[in-house]
Write a structure and sequence with these properties.
Elements (H helix, E strand, L loop, with lengths): L10 E3 L2 E3 L3 E3 L15 H12 L4 E8 L12 E2 L6 H13 L3 E7 L7 H4 L4 E2 L13 E2 L2 H21 L3 E6 L4 H6 L14 H4 L1 H13 L4 E9 L8 H13 L4 E6 L20 H10 L4 E4 L5 H9 L5 E4 L1 H5 L3 H7 L13 H8 L14 H4 L10 E5 L3 H13 L2 E5 L9 H4 L6 H16 L3 E3 L16 E4 L3 E3 L12 E3 H5 L9 E5 L3 H11 L4 E5 L11 H13 L3 E3 L2 E6 L3 E6 L4 E5 L2 E4 L3 E3 L2 H6 L6 E3 L8 H18 L3
Parallel strand pairs: 3-4, 3-13, 4-5, 4-6, 6-9, 7-8, 9-10, 10-11, 11-12, 12-13, 14-15, 14-17, 15-16, 17-28, 19-26, 20-21, 20-26, 21-22
Antiparallel strand pairs: 1-2, 18-27, 23-24, 24-25
The chain binds flavin mononucleotide and iron/sulfur cluster.
The site of flavin mononucleotide (FMN) has 26 residues, from strand 4, helix 11 and helix 13.
Length: 648
């Protein structure tokens, strides 16, 4: 008996049977070769998701018109027969691993930059996107029709390559969305003005693909709301959906947001799971064809609920499948606890925007499927002691166990988790607790022997000499050297987040406006404290991913947090703190409490001693260099692979 029967009911989409309602949504991961060809790395990445059980995989945005339509390096191109070989291998790979395969057809329009393309961006009108700021050139009618034909030709390449269908990308502020949106389509000709005119390019592409390649499943990804003043809004987008249905489109993939709207197309952690469902539910009222909903869906229960309530016919997953390629198989078996949860850190999309290959903070295998999915066991018995039960130590212990090592994990605290325990406390960071709990439950299911409240003593080596001594002893807060720093009213971030001090209605000054300081401010605003952040650099939370950063800064601003940037501390008094701005002006701020958020340093003493006593000692995670969850997890996994590789 299936735990999620609605989610795992097959469905016919445009004549193609899907085994379940789970759709891997397009995510540009930048694994293509620089010449735009599909790479082996990319095929392995998609095959893993197909083997992982998704019913439908929609391959990431493939550019139909390079260079002008290209968004980034490492993007797939689909504008010439030379790409067919790689595209065929990709389509074959996905289908032979059990999923059906669509590919997304894409033109960036004004949401790209001449630094990337080498040419001026093109758009319906010469209106720059407020975030990209590269003024585009208005397309002539002949050029618009040329792009239309390139979309249709690209569908032909997809057909020849063996894809089951294509998705026309008409969302997220890219070219077709720009034509649809009144705020950036100011044309006076038949492609601008009335809805009939603005929708013309999309409808011509749809008609061309239907006519030329009637066997392809035709899907359109559409913004149901741009969330931009003057942009495409629901009443018009519902009308567009009606017309797409009439025109013979097989599937509508509902989305929203543009670069200008910022947070809605790839949400930061404060958005609730499934918040976009109302959009698909509205579309379902006006069309007969299947509708896909999604956005922030992480748990199978939520996906099941959406299908069961008939708010959508299919549910898309994006980041959840970067975090766990086997999400669907695990959900099908009801093994929800075994799904590695995405923590919405948005490191993945940050990589994408930087133009580098995407990796996932919690899943070291994403993008490294060829190197890290080998499931061999070491031949001879081998023992390892892991010191430290934070993210690096836990991931390392799990991976070593998988390779067949006998592992002893030592943690000096009474619980596992290390800094994850504190990182999960500020508002909207609860996904980190889910990830910590996932690691802990995985360890409990493994053969790793867990020793809590147990600081590892090097004297132990006399009695038990493991083959490998692996140090993941984390980090500790830097000790502030400010004049007047004392123990009375001066605290570390840890004192707040671990609940040792509950501040309410206090005047609080936080020194250090990195992500730690800002998140602590966010936490403290919940209990009516009056907070000022003092930061020596110009910007707050400069170390954070942009979407989560913007969201956090909006929140602390709304919470009344004051900022003193480009400012340094002169002296801490009994009930105040004196700071100086970069032009030397001094200011005294009231301070019942001063909190240091100036950072962490590696805690590596045991390593320095151990390496004189043991021949195989390794140091990873924050104990090696303070660097956060992604580096810790990756180092844990790769060190295990390296040690196992030496023992094959
Ligand atoms: C790394 C990354 C790349 C993305 N690339 C695309 C893309 O190529 N085409 C697209 O339509 N959406 C793209 N998106 C948006 C996703 O398809 C999806 O709408 C978004 O991530 C929200 O869904 P989720 O919460 O399930 O991740 C991308 C998202 C991420 C995280
Ligand atoms: S990088 Fe972060 S947001 Fe992206 S999938 Fe991984 S955990 Fe989720």
């Amino acid at each position: 008996m299936l735990k999620y029967p609605a989610l795992f009911a097959p469905i016919n989409v445009g004549g193609v049977m899907l085994k379940n309602r789970i759709v891997m949504v397009p995510m540009a991961v930048n694994y293509a070769r620089l010449n735009g060809e599909v790479s082996e790395r990319q095929i392995a990445y998609y095959e893993a998701r197909a083997r992982g059980g998704a019913g439908l995989i929609i391959v990431e945005a493939a550019c139909i018109d390079a260079p002008a339509g290209r968004e980034g390096f490492g993007q797939i191109l689909i504008d010439h027969p030379r790409y067919l070989r790689g595209l065929s291998q990709l389509a074959d790979g996905i289908k032979s691993c059990g999923s059906r395969a669509l590919i997304q057809l894409f033109h960036a329009g004004r949401q790209t930059h001449s630094i990337i393309t080498g040419v001026q961006p093109v758009a319906p009108s010469a209106v720059a996107c407020a975030t990209v700021k590269d003024v585009p050139r208005e397309l002539s009618i002949t050029e618009v029709q040329d792009i239309r034909d390139k979309f249709i030709a690209a569908a032909g390449y997809a057909y020849m390559a063996g894809f089951d269908g294509v998705e026309v990308h008409a969302a997220h502020g890219y070219l077709i969305n720009q034509f649809l949106s009144p705020n950036c389509n100011l044309r006076q000709d038949e492609y601008g003005g009335s809805l009939d005119n603005r929708v013309r390019l999309l409808m011509e592409i749809v008609a061309g693909i239907k006519k030329g390649f009637p066997k392809l499943v035709l899907d359109v990804r559409l913004n149901i709301d741009d969330f931009v003043p003057g942009g495409l809004e629901m009443p018009e987008s519902l009308e567009i959906c009606r017309r797409l249905d009439e025109a013979g489109v097989d599937l509508i993939n509902c989305s929203c947001g543009t670069y200008e709207s910022g947070l809605t197309s790839i949400e930061p952690a404060s958005y609730t799971e499934g918040w976009r469902t109302y959009m698909a539910a509205a579309v379902k009222q006006v069309v007969k064809i299947p509708v896909i909903s999604g956005g922030m869906i992480k748990k199978p229960e939520m996906a099941e609920e959406i299908i069961k309530k008939q708010q959508a016919d299919l549910v898309f997953l994006g980041r959840a499948l970067l975090a766990d390629s086997n999400w669907a198989i695990k959900a099908e078996k009801g093994y929800d606890d075994e799904i590695r949860p995405c923590i919405i850190c948005n490191n993945c999309i940050e990589d994408n925007f930087k133009g580098i290959a995407v990796s996932c903070a919690v899943n070291p295998v994403t993008g490294r499927e060829r190197e890290l999915t080998k499931t061999f066991k070491i031949k001879n018995k081998s023992t390892a002691v892991v010191i430290g039960g934070g993210p690096a130590g836990m991931q390392l212990a799990l991976a070593l166990d998988r390779y067949g090592f006998e592992v002893d994990l030592f943690e000096k605290e009474e619980r596992l988790g290390g800094l994850l325990n504190l990182a999960a406390v500020p508002p909207h960071k609860e996904k980190i607790a889910l990830f910590r709990d996932y690691l802990i439950k995985s360890l409990r299911r493994s053969r790793v022997s867990i020793n809590l409240n147990h600081p590892y003593k090097l004297e132990n080596l006399r009695d038990q000499y493991p083959d490998h001594l692996l140090v993941a002893s984390g980090s500790k807060p830097l000790t502030p050297k400010f004049k007047g720093w004392n123990e009375k009213n001066c605290l570390q971030v840890e004192d707040i987040l671990n609940g040792r001090f509950n501040l309410e209605g206090q005047q609080v000054v936080i020194i250090g406006g990195g992500s730690n300081g800002c998140e602590t401010a966010d936490f403290l605003t919940q209990s009516a404290n009056h907070i000022t952040i003092v930061e020596k650099e110009q910007f707050l939370a400069a170390d954070m991913e942009k979407k989560n950063r913007r969201d956090l800064l909006n929140r602390i601003q709304a919470g009344g947090v004051k900022r003193r940037t480009s400012s340094s501390v002169i002296e801490i008094g009994n009930d105040n703190i004196t700071i100086a701005s970069s032009n030397g002006e001094q200011e005294s701020l009231p301070a019942d409490y001063v909190i240091s958020a100036i950072g962490y340093k590696s805690n590596n003493e045991i390593y320095l001693k151990a390496r004189k006593m043991h021949s195989s000692v390794h140091l990873i995670g924050d104990a090696f260099a303070v660097g956060g969850i992604r580096k810790a997890i990756l180092q844990g996994e790769t060190l295990a692979a390296m040690l196992a590789g030496q023992k094959i």
